Amino acid sequence: MSKPTTTAEPVKVGFVSLGCPKNLVDSEVMMGLVARAGAEITPRAEEADVIVVNTCSFIDIAQQESVNTILEMAGHKAAGRAKKLVVAGCLVERFRNEIQKNIPEVDAVVGTGELESILAAAGIVSAPASSNSPLVVLRSRPEAAARAEKGRFERGEWDGAIADLPNYLYDENTPRLLATPRWSAYIKIAEGCDHPCSFCIIPQLRGKFRSRRFESVVAEAERLAQSGVREITLIGQDTTCYGEDLGLKDALPLLLERLALIEELRWVRFLYAYPNKITERLLKTIGRYDKICSYIDVPLQHASAAVLKHMKRGGGHEVFLRSIEKMRRIIPGLTLRTSFIAGFPGEEERDFDELCEFVRAAEFDWLGVFGYSDEAGATSHALGGKLPHAEVESRRRKLMQIQKQISRRKKKALVGRRFDVLLEGVSAETELLWEGRTQMHAPEIDGKVFVSDFGDHAEVRPGEFHRCEVIEAHDYDLVVKLI
């Protein structure tokens, strides 16, 4: 009698994804790749055979969080069953060799342009024989030769930088395992950036701007909708540049129009608009379709023309106010979000006062403020006139205090009004209430909507849309009842 065959247990892989939604999509792609190869995804680090930390390196706080998380997962590796610790993402693009040199528990690194190498890094399949490393597959790019002479980064202390820029771009055939709730998903429509903002290192971390094919985005959206997704959020470093590199005109409004025709979808929104790329065609498209959320996220960064010039961006106080007036005139009920940098090098008191005056005049619905982070490799790193950290933080807090007063007033004006709300389940803050979102609330970044009264609804489920009425308002959050 032959012996029964035994099947080896699948490799269990645990992912920790840090940073922005763009990074989350990268994590979802890597999870899809390892799952398709036969691995099992686990949410518990102590049960994982392989732990992957997808890192962020946008500002110093994000870098520290990434390092702390790597060290925490190294502890899990030492104490548990994990045999491998893999570090992926933006921190790898900056400090590839330093990570492996200073944290010996790290077994492999995977950069933002090397997502397909996650299989080799995790030990699920062997690395391609043609690769220069068991962990990295480099591709030949026209810009690589020009950059190889002095390295990708202008500053030599960036240990481990490879000459080639990241150039990976997933498509509709790439497997993804969604980490978001089943009813909501992000779609990355472009990668990289060509803007020369002096405070930013994203072009070095993610490469040149490159758009996905129009048909590819539509195909992915249709498949997600058929699987039960009802809300899609389009993301990219600059979504308003979508299609320019492909020779397409008005590509973003055309894409929004096409997605609005997908019957199963309820909401479509996009994030990260560049100020001078918001065209009248785009605004009219948003205003024309109910499915396209009347929501624009446009990071302005500052309002002083002098500071914006040093940031290598255009515009200023009056230009932005005219643009905002046009947006609100074309799109009734527009929700407007922005972000600013406080304490940029050379920011004088009069510049900061102008920014405060602008925030009061513009009355944004949502606003975030970052204290200036002095990043090696960014052009602003070489600028003089840097402010003490305490002053930067003081200015950041003052701006947020101004916005808090604006937000409180705007939220109180919503009491008694009715909106559609997407229910998301029991609140993590209090089990006595459910949470949801309206079109005014982008996933994860805006205030909360708490449901305190379900009205005549005997049973509700996460992922359902209901009509609601605002019955209470706080500084940033709303309380609603279902009707």
Features:
single chain, 483 residues, alpha/beta, 5-stranded parallel beta sheet, 5-stranded mixed barrel, 18 strands
Structural class: alpha/beta
Estimated share of beta-strand residues = 15-25%
Helical coverage, percent range:
25-40%
Counting DSSP E segments of at least 2 residues, the number of strands comes to 18
Q: Over the alpha carbons, how many angstroms does the gyration radius reach?
A: 23 Å
> In this structure, how is the largest beta sheet organized?
5 strands, parallel
Determine the number of helices (DSSP H or I, runs of at least 4 residues).
13
The neighbouring-strand order within the major sheet is 2-1-3-4-5
Intertermini distance: 68 Å
Question: Overview of this structure, please?
Answer:
The chain has helices spanning 21-36, 60-79, 90-102, 118-121, 142-148, 202-206, 214-226, 251-260, 280-288, 305-310, 317-330, 349-362, 389-412, and strands at 12-17, 40-41, 50-55, 84-89, 108-110, 184-188, 190-191, 210-211, 231-235, 267-270, 295-297, 335-342, 366-371, 418-426, 434-437, 449-453, 465-473, 478-482. It has 13 helices and 18 strands. α12 (349-362) packs parallel to α13 (389-412). Residues 126-161 have low confidence and may be disordered. It is of the alpha/beta class and 483 residues long. Helix content is 32%, strand content 19%. The strands form 5 sheets. It has a 5-stranded parallel β-sheet, sandwiched between helices. A 5-stranded mixed barrel has the order 14-15-16-18-17.
